[in-house]
Design a protein that fits this description.
With 275 residues, the chain is an alpha+beta fold. The protein has two domains: 159 residues, Sandwich (Jelly Rolls), CATH 2.60.120; 100 residues, Orthogonal Bundle (Arc Repressor Mutant, subunit A). 41% of the residues lie in helices and 19% in strands. α1 crosses α3, α2 runs antiparallel to α3 and α5 packs across α6. The longest helix has 19 residues. The chain starts with a strand and ends with a helix.
């Protein structure tokens, strides 16, 4: 998967960015930036990619990501779809003079944990949402104080879930993994063997298998199946081709395996998925 860097420019007279936006669908490319980002999904559903974490998302999803962590929300294709989000983006430099003080110890730990991606849950999410909505209206010092309150609340709570393990190295920072992802996205509809993928990474097959699993926390075969099923879901939602046509166009040459992998990834059969 190709990754791009987003350059974030703060509004005039502001040291960080907070915005609410509505679009037909979330379709931004897989990207990273130097800032921390807190995202609340007010409307929409689809697939969320945070580093090596790939999960379904829906309304109510709240995620906190750190600098240089690749991420993307991709909406499901559906008629009359709508997507809406509230986003806060800020640089670590905003609190540079405070970050190493005793009072900031837990917030500093939170910011470090955000480098692996954090999902915010339960009552904490509900409380943070109220403050995010208020922050949209605040100006001057009050906005910075509100942001600090949000970070403090998250740092004091156990209603959070780390999306990537601490030892995970996000694949976007390894040129070989990035090359393999781009190759898979370009040729997923064809027969791709482990030998093919290993050659792209310029590695022996056995070494590549260990390397890919260490970097992404999944086997290459699992990654490829998930990619193909994601592509199949896009095609099925358009309702222009039969299930068999979609399966073969997405690189499956065995219908039994396609049905098995589809049910494993989505929890539904292809027929139930498009109902």
């Amino acid at each position: 998967m190709k990754i791009t860097e987003e350059k974030i420019i703060n509004p005039a007279q502001n040291s960080f960015k907070v915005l609410q936006y509505q679009v037909a669908e979330f379709n931004m490319a897989f990207h990273f930036h130097q800032e921390y980002e807190l995202v609340y999904i007010a409307k929409g559903k689809g697939m969320r990619y945070i580093g090596n974490s790939v999960e379904k998302f829906e309304q109510g999803d709240m995620i906190f990501v750190g600098p240089n962590l690749g991420h993307m929300w991709k909406s499901e294709n559906s008629e009359n779809s709508q997507a809406e989000a509230i986003v806060i983006q800020f640089s670590v430099n905003l609190f540079q003079s405070l970050i190493d003080t005793p009072e900031f110890r837990k917030i500093k730990q939170l910011l470090e944990q955000a480098n692996s991606g954090i999902k915010i849950l339960g009552n904490l999410r509900d409380n943070i949402l109220v403050k995010m909505k208020s922050l949209l209206k605040y100006k001057a010092a009050k906005s910075v104080i509100s942001l600090l309150e949000i970070l403090d609340d998250i740092s004091e709570s156990d209603e959070i879930l780390t999306l990537n393990s601490d030892k995970t190295q996000i694949f976007t920072y390894d040129k070989r993994i990035n090359a393999v992802h781009q190759f898979a996205h370009a040729f997923y509809h064809q027969n791709i063997s482990l030998e093919n993928a290993a050659s792209i990474a310029n590695m022996e097959k056995s070494a590549f298998c260990r390397f890919f699993k260490d970097k992404t926390q999944k086997t290459f075969t699992r990654f490829l199946n998930e990619l193909r099923i994601d592509k199949a879901c896009d095609l099925l939602q358009k309702k222009e081709k039969s299930v068999t046509e979609v399966a073969f166009e997405c690189g499956f040459n065995n219908m039994a395996n396609f049905y098995r992998q589809f049910k494993k990834a989505t929890g539904k059969t292809p027929g139930r998925f498009i109902e």
